[in-house]
Amino acid sequence: MLQMHKLYKQKYEVVRIFKIAKAWAKVLSQEKNEDVIIRGKICGGCDKKQFSQFLDFIDDEIKEVKGFVCGECGCPLVAKIRSNDKCPLNKW
What's the pTM value of the predicted model, to 2 decimals? Predict the structure, then answer.
């Protein structure tokens, strides 16, 4: 039983890494659709967002999220708004 749990956890981590990589590819290509714009506005107005100097160098057309991370999950918002992930606060 413990072995199955360990395998499931490893599979979950691989899927998570793939989702993160896919979101960063969308950041680099500056993908911008209606959902991304709406999510950017929502995250840009969220009081949980936190500024990160480390991420401020990443240029993004959606200025509301440039240089910020989600205060709940720690994800960079430029990638989070482009991912298939959900907002940890259920705002989108």
Answer: 0.74
